[in-house]
Specification:
The complex is a heterodimer of chains A (502) and B (155). By secondary structure, chain A is mostly helical. In chain A, 74% of the residues lie in helices and 1% in strands. Chain A is globular. A two-stranded antiparallel sheet of chain B has the order 1-2. The chains are: A mainly alpha (502), B mainly alpha (155).
Chain lengths: 502, 155
């Protein structure tokens, strides 16, 4: 079947009214969590995951994916208007977006960020269609050794890019360690259960991620006190003021194209994430601009490039998930958990065995991006009003949602306790400079990594050289070394060069 | 951050030693290949190594005089809020099934409303807590069909 026919098949699935409704609800919630500081897409998808039990898989994933990419749209609004990034990928948008808002061009900044995100989203989804299936077909030739090394590569990239490498590696190892709790699938031996029956099946992803992300954040903010910015009241929300002019389009079209391309291809690489991509895009725009001195003072390219890049990256991160079964970010790890909940194993077989689902999901992304432009531009006034919801109502509501989410993962109140424990750990980790995302990646990939590792050893009769004897795994292993040693090597060479110049 | 790094590093070292010690009680090798203790053992060795890499540079900079912690990273500035927030969650876990979702969540949200806005009167906090609890219960129990414990309330 040709790609076009498959897309048409997916279109048939995606335009079912119920799927459209869930896509809309997902993008709506995604925009809201992107706008509200403190509640990110990871925690929200985690909260919603148990809620989707019993739904049709396409409806559930359309909802969760809508939250995932919708948050990238919404995150820019608070960055531009209030200088408060709704989520990490929008931090860089504050630099020029907020300056534009101060100059009375906040509406234009929001408009161009929505249009850039839309173009990037459509580009990334089209690219996913084009490269998804060939990549999945290639992955069918992978054996346990290749998978082990591929997962190790994903984990090593997640720990080496963005933030402190040592701390990220520690979090990743801790995630892998916690994932070994429960009954060993090879021998049936109970590991680290301490005689507790609730630990025999291991820990569930949902309470852990809600604790580490949402609860850790909320406790942190409760401790610091709550700030309400009155600037939100002074923003013009008329459509006329939000729509960018032709001159704005002309100035930002190249930045949007570069951001979309860069974002998608960086997003495919596991671990890079939308936040890092947006910073790289900002750096690129500044470097190639004829007016680099205007960056940071309210230049439109400084908003268009990074906003397109972060949206393209978030959709690019779905490529390794859907084709190889390896999530590139914490949000993608939870989406993978969602797929598995429905008996759909993310990976190369997904394209072969469930094309209706995969292409249906891809088409919901096209439609979701269209919905997001409609939601983000004419309704901007409504979204700004959302920021006025008092936190003494918002936080208790979120905590109540989290309790339902944690409890309904296994219908066991012990999961609420586990969430509280991980909430405390998330708070400590955040305050000590340890990002929780590598923990989630390690925890999610842990069981798959262990299974592939042990299978590879069985195939290789205990010989560790099996990881280097096959060409694909050898190349991947070399990439791991490059990723781990590369940044240090570059810094070292830079230091030597600097010393020589001095 | 150096003092905190030393403390966190030591805690991680202890955790690694505990995890590794426990891993040694599982078979390292099985008739089919690596046993259940194989990966946990190597992971704990890795954690021990990483925690030492965290401790030694931190010790060095601590001796050199870096003892400052930036304001935004100050931990336990208000330990009571932390204790109260987590304590309520433990209470929810303990009484969720016996007291029921609506009752326990109403109590908890009332408490959280009061925690965020201490100046609110209890009466107002109770009303907000009860409304949040009822709305969430209806949404999850009747609209989404989740099996939420109803406990003492005949709903």
């Amino acid at each position: 079947m040709m790609i076009f026919e498959k897309l048409m098949m997916g279109f048939g699935q995606a335009i079912a009214p119920v799927v459209l409704i869930y896509t809309f609800v997902g993008t709506f919630i995604g925009t809201a969590v992107g706008i509200l500081p403190g509640l990110g897409p990871v925690a929200t998808i985690g909260i919603l995951l148990p809620v989707t039990f019993g739904m049709d898989p396409l409806c559930a994933l359309a909802l969760l994916c809508g939250v995932y990419y919708g948050a990238q749209y919404g995150g820019s609004t608070t960055s531009i208007l209030l200088n408060i990034p709704g989520e990490s990928a929008s931090v860089v948008t504050c630099l020029d977006g907020h300056q534009m808002a101060k100059q009375g061009r906040g509406g234009v900044a929001i408009g161009i960020s929505a249009i850039g995100s839309f173009i990037a989203g459509i580009f990334a989804t089209a690219a996913l269609v084009l490269i998804g299936e060939p990549l999945a077909r290639m992955a069918l030739a992978f054996g346990p050794a290749e998978y082990t090394i591929l997962m190790a590569l994903g984990l090593s990239m997640a720990t080496s890019l963005g933030g402190n490498q040592k701390r990220a590696l520690i979090m990743c190892v801790l995630g892998l360690m916690v994932s070994t709790m429960g009954t060993d699938s090879f021998t049936g031996v109970a590991r680290y259960t301490f005689g507790l029956t609730i630990l025999e099946d291991g820990l569930d992803l949902v309470p852990i991620l809600m604790g580490l992300f949402a609860l850790g954040d909320i406790i942190s903010e409760l401790e610091q006190g709550v700030v309400v910015n009155p600037a939100v009241l002074a923003v013009s929300t008329r459509l006329r003021d939000v729509m960018p002019k032709w001159k704005d389009f002309k100035e930002s079209v190249a930045a949007i194209s570069r951001g979309s391309f860069l974002g998608f291809f960086l997003g495919i690489l596991p671990g890079i994430g939308a936040a890092t991509t947006s910073f790289i895009s900002y750096g690129l725009e500044k470097r190639i601009s004829k007016h680099p001195e205007k960056f940071g003072k309210g230049i439109i390219e400084g908003v268009a490039g990074p906003e397109s890049a972060n949206n393209a990256a978030s959709q690019g991160a779905l490529v390794p998930l859907l084709t190889l079964g390896i999530p590139g970010s914490a949000s993608a790890a939870i989406l993978a958990g969602g797929l598995m909940m429905y008996g759909l194993v993310p990976g190369p077989l997904l394209f072969r065995d469930n094309p209706q689902f995969v292409y249906g999901l891809i088409v919901t992304m096209f439609l979701g991006n269209i919905m997001l432009v409609i939601l983000n531009m004419p309704l901007i006034g409504w979204w700004v009003r959302l920021l006025k919801v008092p936190l003494h109502i918002l936080y208790p509501m979120v905590i109540a949602f989290m309790v339902v989410g944690a409890y309904s993962a296994n219908y066991n109140s012990a999961d609420v306790m586990i969430m509280a424990v991980f909430g405390f750990l998330g708070y400590v980790a955040r305050k000590s400079g340890f990002a929780p995302a590598p923990f989630i990646l390690g925890f999610f990939l842990g069981p798959m990594f262990e299974t592939s590792l042990r299978q590879a050893f069985i195939v290789g009769r205990g010989n560790p050289l099996i990881f280097f004897q096959r060409p694909i795994s050898l190349v991947l292993a070399m990439l791991i070394v490059l990723v781990q040693v590369g940044p240090t090597l570059i810094r070292w060479i830079g230091k030597i060069a600097k010393n020589r110049t001095c | 951050m150096s003092k905190r790094d030393i403390i966190i590093g030591c805690l991680l070292l202890l955790f690694g030693l505990f995890w590794g010690g426990k891993a040694l009680t599982y078979d390292y090798q099985s008739p089919y290949g690596p046993g259940p203790g194989f990966l946990p053992f190597w992971l704990s060795l890795l954690l021990i190594g990483l925690s030492l890499l965290l401790i030694f540079p931190a010790l060095k900079s601590y001796r050199a005089g870096d003892r400052e912690i930036t304001h935004e990273n100050t931990m336990f500035t208000n330990p009571l809020i932390l204790l109260k927030s987590l304590g309520v969650l433990f209470m929810i876990a303990l009484f969720l099934e016996t007291a029921g979702f609506m009752f326990i969540i109403a109590m908890a949200t009332t408490f959280y409303v009061k925690l965020v806005r201490p100046e609110h009167l209890w009466k107002r906090s109770v009303i907000i807590g009860a409304i949040i609890s009822i709305l969430i219960y209806i949404a999850f129990k009747y609209i989404l069909g989740l099996n939420i414990p109803r406990g003492v309330l005949p709903l």
